[in-house]
Amino acid sequence: MPRREGMERKDLLAANVKIFKSQGKALAEFSKPTTKVIVVGNPANTNAFICAKYAAGKIPATNFSAMTRLDHNRALAQVALKTGTTIGDVKNVIIWGNHSGTQFPDVKHATVNKGSNTVDAYTAINDANWIQSGFISTVQKRGAVIIEKRKLSSAMSAAKAACDHIHDWHFGTKPGEWVSMAIPSDGSYGIPKGLIFSFPVTIDGATKEWKIVKDLPLDDFAKEKIQITTKELEEERDDALKACDEANI
Ligand SMILES: NC(=O)c1ccc[n+]([C@@H]2O[C@H](COP(=O)([O-])OP(=O)(O)OC[C@H]3O[C@@H](n4cnc5c(N)ncnc54)[C@H](O)[C@@H]3O)[C@@H](O)[C@H]2O)c1
Ligand SMILES: O=C(O)C[C@H](O)C(=O)O
Q1: Which has the closest alpha carbon to 180: 212, 207, 217?
Q2: Most buried among 120, 173, 195, 236, by the most CB within 10 A?
């Protein structure tokens, strides 16, 4: 069930997590243990959490992901527009947390190729105020703006992001580069274990396994933003577990 104009992803939670409970059970019954899952339907992180929970025992939780690649691509596009470059020139943006209005799009560790030089994104953008306000809110609200304009959810850009996500999970990330993927937390950056949280990840194309990029320094601004999206995901997880317990499916 998609979100419509004026709805928040939370409004979808009770209806959609029950669908993902039954999907998880079906995966446990019929699929191979090597199956890998990308959840796009919203609330994507929490749906993936529920789907993984009901497929547990058959498919490892690390094979479940939720799509934040669309947000990642939107962040690349905003930085490229601002710096007069192309999306291929911008590397290593990060989407932290939930695929929702609380996500934290972060360019602290990003770089931009300008001509033959590679510079850090803060230098290339040269507008710290925009990075900490306009940029973040544009990326956070992009999905809602598209629904407002189209009266439908994003379509082609979401499909492109799903292809990018699957492409990199299969072929691996390029040396020195990472992508954003919502996957079960291993406790990195203080995020509760098991929460499906968007992190910067590298992927080994040989093993097809992702690894969270560890130990990136976080300033107080980043820590506060990450705390907000973590809290929302914890609340969604608790509401979803309750809805699933109550659902007779
Ligand atoms: N993660 C992202 O970046 C991202 C981007 C775009 C859309 N979305 C989400 O993807 C989802 C789909 O959006 P859409 O625009 O393609 O919607 P849509 O209405 O075009 O498609 C929804 C589909 O779900 C099916 N469906 C309805 N109830 C079902 C049930 N009980 N079990 C199985 N299938 C059921 C419908 O038949 C329909 O085919 C929405 O939740 C939307 O919010 C996420
Ligand atoms: O369907 C939505 O809620 C919006 C979608 O997730 C998007 O980010 O475009």
Answers
A1: 212
A2: 236
- Going by alpha carbons, the residue nearest to atom 6 of ligand 2 is 143
Q: What is the pLDDT of residues 144-191, one digit of tens each?
A: 999 999 999 999 999 999 999 999 999 999 999 999 999 999 999 999
| Per-residue pLDDT at 115 | 87
Q: Which residue range(s) make up the domain with 114?
A: 69-229
Residues 46 and 121 in one domain: no
3 pocket-lining for ligand 2 (C-beta < 6 Å): yes
3 domain-assigned? no
Exposure string for 70-103, b = 16+ CB within 10 A, e = fewer: bbbbbbbbbbbebbebeeebbbbbbbbbbbbbbb
- Per-residue pLDDT of 69-84, as tens digits, reads 999 999 999 999 999 9
Identify the residue whose C-alpha is closest to ligand 1 atom 8: 41
